[in-house]
Amino acid sequence: xxxxxxxxxxxxxxxxxxxxxxxxxxxxxxxxxxxxxxxxxxxxxxxxxxxxxxxxxxxxxxxxxxxxxxxxxxxxxxxxxxxxxxxxxxxxxxxxxxxxxxxxxxxxxxxxxxxxxxxxxxxxxxxxxxxxxxxxxxxxxxxxxxxxxxxxxxxxxxxxxxxxxxxxxxxxxxxxxxxxxxxxxxxxxxxxxxxxxxxxxxxxxxxxxxxxxxxxxxxxxxxxxxxxxxxxxxxxxxxxxxxxxxxxxxxxxxxxxxxxxxxxxxxxxxxxxxxxxxxxxxxxxxxxxxxxxxxxxxxxxxxxxxxxxxxxxxxxxxxxxxxxxxxxxxxxxxxxxxxxxxxxxxxxxxxxxxxxxxxxxxxxxxxxxxxxxxxxxxxxxxxxxxxxxxxxxxxxxxxxxxxxxxxxxxxxxxxxxxxxxxxxxxxxxxxxxxxxxxxxxxxxxxxxxxxxxxxxxxxxxxxxxxxxxxxxxxxxxxxxxxxxxxxxxxxxxxxxxxxxxxxxxxxxxxxxxxxxxxxxxxxxxxxxxxxxxxxxxxxxxxxxxxxxxxxxxxxxxxxxxxxxxxxxxxxxxxxxxxxxxxxxxxxxxxxxxxxxxxxxxxxxxxxxxxxxxxxxxxxxxxxxxxxxxxxxxxxxxxxxxxxxxxxxxxxxxxxxxxxxxxxxxxxxxxxxxxxxxxxx
Length: 680
Known about the structure:
By secondary structure, the protein is α/β, with parallel strands linked by helices. It is about 25% helix and about 30% strand. The chain is built from 18 helices and 33 strands. The strands form three sheets. The protein has a 15-stranded mixed beta sheet, sandwiched between helices. The longest helix is centred in the middle third of the chain and has 26 residues, at about 215-240. The chain is globular and about 75 Å long.
């Protein structure tokens, strides 16, 4: 679900105003949107009898949704007519509608039109791109329902369960607030806080909250911390049910091992791990010792754990990545305190998650600043932030859009002095050539690299323009002096590049109403709500001609990356879209750049372990290394798509059978169960 909501307040009386109940008086309710304690927008509801007009808008990092809604409610507070207009976070145009008649529901959204007919139709509708108004009225209805569950349109059954009740500080007094887990709308529940009247107080999540106006920072922190605790408790329950920790050694029989040095599959072997380390790799059919658990690998392929090199890790992402065989991630910027908590929970075994290598995010001050990481107001502050990150063991510094480009040489120099690498976006009003000269070790996102070849002086890349300007990419001549100068400098200085191809494929080629191209191989496995979200474009296009320019831009991106690979520039696989299934697609796209399947598998395993200086313990399946690997029935050296069907994942010696977890969150299974013989 998206985050969002509405309300107002100054006094306790106003704070408990029942704005979702029909009233004869016009009423305005307001919520503020906060990210890392910065006020970044609003949700406002104007209510007049049975009509609600909603204005929802927030901006962070130069982008965010802009939504207006008009909803007509019946006497019970259920919608009968809904009109939604505006734009999504990345600028796709929204024209969504819903209507309810006696025996028919109709709706139109970016996934296409839909209809339900018959008796006992759902009374409530969950929007695709609306504000959180839908969640607010649905939660109130569920609260009044005897079993706190009801079907919703377009599909699914929503349930509400109380998770916490407490008094929040409010205007010199207190407000009784109850936080619920609202589930059934997607694979991930929404946490929603209501007052005793059932009206919305907040939609909290770690680092982000939509909060009733008039409630202060103390209430915000309490609810954000609570949401982190509740999410972790849920994931801890899943971990308890899904994480198999076997006593004694585990012998995986009859598997072929991918060797990232030879870039080939081995002959069939048995692999044994004890605790969290690989203890033996021996001939197939080797004798088991007393006390071993045996797992029949059925001739499948054992692949070292995958690396996702562009994560912004959250609790749900942590679980989904492990289930997808992603046992290590590089986090490229986060709420530092929230990530600290998550890493602690992962390392303790409380929740599932990959190993995390941290990047220290540094942003400059502007109206478009990202709320992630640490904000620098001047060059000295940026240097101090580098020192802060270095003292805490971060692996690299990541510099961002609003940092002044003239600070880069001094910031990079200090990072290198302290042993940190430097990666990042190209700061606004600069280009890749300047950042390479300043000492960048890595450039993040292929559009950031290529924009310097097409921008005009003064054009601002801190906004959605950094996506819109890609329409100019088809005109790039890869043999031009401008291009070859950049690529020659990257080769000479051994600058690496993390292109995030998949997010560009999604943004430039996906169209409304059809599954996005990166999701085709898992689309049918997903619940209806996820399928709906996967059938909308990321970037809007004004007309077919504009979409055609975007598609041509994507082709030029692939051509550019192919040329870079040919020149020996290291390309790093990362997604910026959560990893898991989308990392599988990222690796598939790497095979379009002149790399073989085996090249890509080596790049995503041992070569990334070497890049992060972790290859002594990770990146390959060898005696003494950590037991981090995945088992697939097929052979990904022959068909890279084989990595999308996973039978088993082992991370740090803990065994997961992904389909066991998927069944609990509504995802259809991918593989046949393995035979497990308990220890004797």
